[in-house]
Amino acid sequence: MLTLGRIANALCSFIYIALAVRALGLSDFGLLILIHSLASTSSVLSRMQSWQTLIRFGSESFGNGDTDLLHRVIHFCIRLDTLSAMFAIVFGLVGVQIYGHTAHWSAHVRFLADLYMFVSPLMYSGWANGILRMAGKFHLVPIIDSCAALAKTLGVIIGYVLHLKLGYFLFIWAMTIIIDYGFYIHYALDILRRKFSFQYFRAFRHWRWQLPGMWQFTRAASVNQTLGNISGHVATLLVGNGLGPAEAAVFRVCRQIADGIVTPAQLISPVLYPELVRMRDRQDWRGLKRVTWKMFGVLSGLSVALLLLSAFFGSTIFRFLLHVHVHHTSLYISIMLLAAVFSLLVIPLEPLLIVVGHVKFLMKNRTAVMAVYFPALYVLTRHFGLAGACLSTAACNATILLSQMLGVWFFHDRIGKSSER
Asked: What superkingdom heads the lineage (predicted)?
């Protein structure tokens, strides 16, 4: 189910991107991408990783039916997401004014971007995502994502047939986000109401409550995940600012093709973290290490096959999507796929370091890498164009992978001796 859902989602994305480019033209499609990236950046910057906090501090009470403690943990996570939502809107509106000025957007484009920022809080399902993972209902995720992707595809087809403009396509993107978020909240609340008699609005009592170490874990996990998730959106914005919206569209589509190719392999990530948490709770340290390295070996072999696939078919996919000829697209896609492969190989390593208590290591690691990556990306993009952007992205992901491999090697003998640092 997970595989079919992700594949269907990737196929829908190829269709609606191809039609959106034909309807809007490459430059206006680039504006659509940049506005969406601004909203995504504000969402990622503001979000707390409440689903990780929920699983770490609530999985045991969820399993043994400790309703009171579980309610308190969920309430804490809901409050985190509420604060994140408010900050997302503020960050988004400020970001539009700053970026719109530097990118020389018209007043009309800025107005559309301002309106779009109000859906940025709904880009993150947070605590609801954690409930689905703990309840073993993660098969609902690809169904939800597929419904949203189908709705977006249908909306884009209508826009293509009727020759509608940027405002309409932003509306379709926004409605897709609302649909996706609504499904997550509905299913999570349904699970909690049936099993634990949960009431959502009680979350806004007792704002000061937290378990020992809960806020520290949330802060460290959030910084690490924010730096990991924000890099793609900021990279698109920097390319757009340095080269223009059309080049930003090319860069984003090359990245999306690469991500689409590795999509089936990424299915491991959503189910791996909860499983490692359960192994940690059982003190099964040998099994935890074995699963991690087995997944790393499988993904390494798969990565070689994916790189060969990109070399032969990358430019063909690009021409289908954008309906334009851009020089060196096979090279760009191959480099971006290499970057995606490096990110793919991080999948089994990062959850291992998180569940054994080395979140601070991940946070410091990503902070250092991103502090170098963003300036390097901008400089290389200005001097070498899209090739510089792609190469700097691949180098960034390779550095993160190498540092996490070193981290696992360094902490390997300590796993099982201390699960909290």
From this structure: Bacteria
Specify burial of residue 317 (Cβ count, 10 A radius: 0-12, 13-18, 19+). Answer: buried
**Given a cut of 50, is residue 418 above it in pLDDT?**
no
Burial zone of 210 (CB within 10 Å; 0-12 exposed, 13-18 middle, 19+ buried): middle
* Domain end marker among 142, 177, 209: 209
What is the spatial distance between Cα 29 and Cα 249, in angstroms, rounded to a whole number?
Answer: 7
Q: Which amino acid, residue 368?
A: A
Asked whether the beta carbons of 10 and 257 are under 8 A apart, the reply is no
Query: Is 294 exposed, middle or buried (CB count within 10 Å of its CB: 0-12, 13-18, 19+)?
Result: exposed
- Cα gap 109→98, rounded to integer Å: 13
Boundary of a domain, candidates 182, 209, 236: 209
**Phi, psi at 147, each rounded to 5°:** -60, -45
- The letter for the amino acid at 278 is R
Mean pLDDT computed over 141-152:
88
Residue at token pair 């045991």: 60
SS3 helix, strand, coil % of the chain, rounded to 5?
85, 0, 15
For residues 129 and 230, state if they share a domain: no
Closest CA to 399 of 345, 337, 334: 345
**Is residue 333 helix, strand or coil?**
helix
The amino acid sitting at 361 is: F
Residue 120's nearest CA partner among 78, 187, 174, 185 is 174
Tell me how crowded residue 313 is: count the other CB atoms within 10 A of its CB.
14
Residue 421 inside a domain? The answer is no
Tell me, yes or no, whether 290 lies in a domain.
yes
154 and 40, same structural domain? Answer: yes
Residue 295 contacts by C-beta under 8 Å, 6 or more apart in sequence?
A: 268, 272, 347, 348
Buried b / exposed e over 321-335, threshold 16 CB at 10 Å, is bbeeebeebbbbbbb
- For residue 292, being part of any structural domain is answered with yes
Number of domains observed in the structure of the chain: 2
Q: 147-189: per-residue pLDDT in tens?
A: 899 999 999 999 999 999 999 999 999 999 999 999 999 999 9
Separation CA 129–CA 131 (nearest Å): 5
Highest mean pLDDT among 20-24, 72-76, 113-117: 113-117
If asked whether residues 155 and 74 sit together in one domain, one would say yes
Tell me, what DSSP letter sits at residue 416? Answer: T
Residues 345 and 408 occupy one common structural domain: yes
